[in-house]
Each structure stands twice: as structure tokens, then as C-alpha cells.
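Re: that backbone. C-alpha cells:
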């Protein structure tokens, strides 16, 4: 099996993977006055802005929800999880190029690099989403046991992100325009996803096009759980589940087939 042999190698190099994650986390704040405290201050500032400003400006825009914090929770649920998707895909598409010297000089399973990207992104996300969860508890908007349904949605999103990221990462080694194009696409993709606005604000013909946006169902699932406190529409997640499998398989096959050529291209 392709994945089995690859991930056996990753397990043998688990020390390298975890050490890389630790070094990157530490290097972010090595020469700063507040050090790792910035991992708390930055997301805390973002959540405060969303809560204080947007709850006043946009508080009445969500239909069927009367809470003062409804819009800020809606926005955080979408923006924070979109940030995880954007970080994984953006970093995965350049991970082989950025680590060209490492790839050329050391012998290790190259698949470790995308895994390091995912782990780093998840560490950052865990900190910021942990603070957001604390805000939900403090404000009395914690959804209860339904909160646990976030985890299968999150797992699916991470797999989709790294599957897509690996495809882009391999292609970007041979065709550098791929990275530039995806950066532009990601901006349009963000605004075509109901994060800042509710889907009901879109004209009906445009709203019907959301079915072709795989991230729309993911973001809507987070918002349903956290804003409305109920289970998401699992049927709406089926297309992205299928797409996730396709991206992961394609990414692994493309990586396995082209990993030798990447060294020469880099």
C-alpha cells in the first residue's frame, strides 16, 4: 500500500517531525519581548475586535438569532476555521520549494514535510480556537454536547486541506505559476464562502452556486454547531467527503510518482 509504506517511514522519523514543529513554534517568538505570549495576544485581539465591533455593527443581521454576540460568533466560527484551511493549503503548496536545501542534503521521507505543515497549523489553531471556546463559555453561548460534532468536521477539513495542498505543492515545484494562481483564487474563494455574510444575504441564483464550493458546507457546519447549537446537515458534507478522498489519493500518487524528479527540479 502506498500510504502504509510512506507512513511507516514517517513513524521512524517521528522525532524529526516533532522536533521541526517545536523549532518552528519557538522560532516565531525567539527575539520578541513577550515571547510565546503573542500566541495568546494575537488571537485574543482578533476575537475582541470581532466581538466588540461586529456585534454592534452587524448584530441584527442573522435571522432567527437574537443574541448580541450572534454575529461575532458566526464570524469567528467561519474566519478562524477558514484560517486553518488557508494556512495548510498555502504553506503546503510551497513546502517543497522552501525546504529545497533540506531535501537535497538529507535523506528522510519527504512526506514528513506536509505532515509538519499540518501539525504546525493545528498547534496555532488549537490555541486560537481554545480561546474562542473560552469566550463561548464566558459569554454563556457554549453549545453543550453538540460541540463534540466539531471534531469530525475538523478532521474532514484538515484532510481536504492537506490533500489539496499536496497536489498544489507537487505541481508548484514544476510549474511555479500554480502558487501565484492559487493565491489569487484563495481570495475569491474566501469571499464566495459565507463567512462575513450569511448565505441568505445572497441572491437566490448565486446562493445555488454554493453547492460547487466545498468549503461552504464545512464553514456552514461550524456555524450551525456554534451559533445555533445543533447538528450540521451531514448530507451536505458528502460532496466534500468524496472530494477529500480524491484529493488525498491524487496527492499521494502524484507525490510518489514525482518525488524523485522534484529533487532535480529544485
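Recovered sequence:
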Amino acid at each position: 500500500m502506498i500510504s502504509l509504506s510512506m507512513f511507516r517511514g514517517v513513524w521512524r522519523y517521528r522525532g524529526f517531525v516533532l522536533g521541526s514543529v517545536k523549532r518552528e513554534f519557538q522560532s516565531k517568538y525567539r527575539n520578541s519581548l513577550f515571547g510565546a505570549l503573542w500566541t495568546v495576544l494575537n488571537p485574543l485581539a482578533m476575537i475582541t475586535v470581532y466581538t466588540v465591533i461586529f456585534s454592534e455593527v452587524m448584530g441584527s443581521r442573522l435571522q432567527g438569532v437574537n443574541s448580541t454576540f450572534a454575529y461575532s460568533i458566526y464570524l469567528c466560527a467561519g474566519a478562524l476555521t477558514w484560517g486553518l484551511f488557508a494556512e495548510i493549503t498555502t504553506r503546503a503548496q510551497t513546502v517543497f520549494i522552501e525546504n529545497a536545501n533540506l531535501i537535497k542534503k538529507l535523506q528522510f521521507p519527504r512526506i514528513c514535510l506536509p505532515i509538519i505543515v499540518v501539525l504546525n497549523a493545528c498547534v496555532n489553531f488549537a490555541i486560537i480556537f481554545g480561546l474562542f471556546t473560552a469566550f463561548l463559555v464566558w459569554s454563556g453561548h457554549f453549545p453543550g454536547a453538540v460541540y463534540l460534532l466539531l471534531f469530525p468536521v475538523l478532521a474532514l477539513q484538515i484532510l481536504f486541506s492537506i490533500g489539496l495542498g499536496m497536489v498544489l505543492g507537487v505541481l508548484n515545484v514544476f510549474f511555479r505559476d500554480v502558487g501565484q494562481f492559487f493565491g489569487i483564487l484563495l481570495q475569491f474563494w474566501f469571499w464566495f464562502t459565507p463567512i462575513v455574510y450569511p448565505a441568505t444575504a445572497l441572491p437566490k441564483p448565486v446562493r445555488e452556486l454554493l453547492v460547487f464550493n466545498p468549503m461552504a458546507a464545512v464553514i456552514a457546519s461550524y456555524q450551525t454547531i456554534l451559533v445555533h447549537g445543533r447538528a450540521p446537515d451531514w448530507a451536505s458534507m458528502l460532496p466534500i467527503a468524496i472530494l477529500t478522498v480524491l484529493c488525498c489519493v491524487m496527492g499521494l500518487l502524484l507525490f510518489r510518482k514525482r518525488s524523485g524528479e522534484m529533487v532535480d527540479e529544485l
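The radius of gyration is 20 Å. The first helix runs from residue 2 to 12.
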